[in-house]
Amino acid sequence: MRSTRWSAAYNELVSLSRIGRMLNEPQDISFTEIVKEAVGLTQGRLRANNIPVEIEANLPIVKVDRARIVEVIQNLLDNAAKFMGEQKNPHIKVGARQEKENWIFYVRDNGVGIEPAYHERVFGLFNKLDPNSEGTGVGLALVKRIIEFHGGKVWVESEGVNQGSTFCFTLPIVL
After folding, report:
1. In the Cβ-directed half-sphere of 63, how many Cα atoms lie within 13 Å?
2. What are the structural domains, with CATH classification, of the chain?
3. Contact by Cβ (8 Å): 168, 158
């Protein structure tokens, strides 16, 4: 178990270090396609925990490194599923809204939530709020780095314990 965790951490660190040097050519793509691909990649955990994912209709076209943004959504979906807690009716929603020259995308869940004091900390490298939870503590740092490389910013909104979480990030509007 320990060597598996270290192996996963190593692979995530390598991925983190490559951002900025190995960017795939940005392409115009429907954000709906990105979300559907990420849902497919996380389907095992979602099905195992009976968690439906609602995808908002008419998500915009974005100009991004497809593989990296799929990785962002995959990570956010996986975290939402992992931290659902004892929720009787788990649910995840992915959507977007326009604000000035950016799209604000979000992954919202009705899981365990995050106390406001920890909103910034969750994006730190190896910062796990629950040291006994599965994972390496690299995933959200990777999400932050990918979004920042695309010229966006990322944050979390949550009122606290058992209030769910909404992870938001911006990407520029494609003209």
Report:
1. 8
2. 2-172 (3.30.565.10)
3. no
Q: What is the bridge-based pairing of β-strands 92-99 and 53-55?
A: parallel
Closest by CA to 32, choosing from 71, 63, 64, 61, is 61
Question: Do 63 and 24 touch, CB atoms closer than 8 A?
Answer: no
Q: What is the pTM of this model?
A: 0.83
Helices (H), 53-151: 66-82, 139-149
The tens digit of pLDDT for each residue in 100-126 reads 999 999 999 999 888 887 667 777 654
CA distance 92 to 110: 7
Residue count (the chain): 175
50 dihedral zone (left: phi>0; alpha: psi -120 to 50; beta): left
Give 6-56 pLDDT, tens digit per residue.
455 555 555 555 554 456 889 999 999 999 999 999 999 999 999 999 999
Helix axes 2-18, 139-149, angle to 10 degrees: 10
- Cα–Cα distance measured from residue 71 to residue 145, given in angstroms and rounded to the nearest whole number: 12
Q: Which of 158, 35, 31, 162 is nearest to 102 (CA)?
A: 31
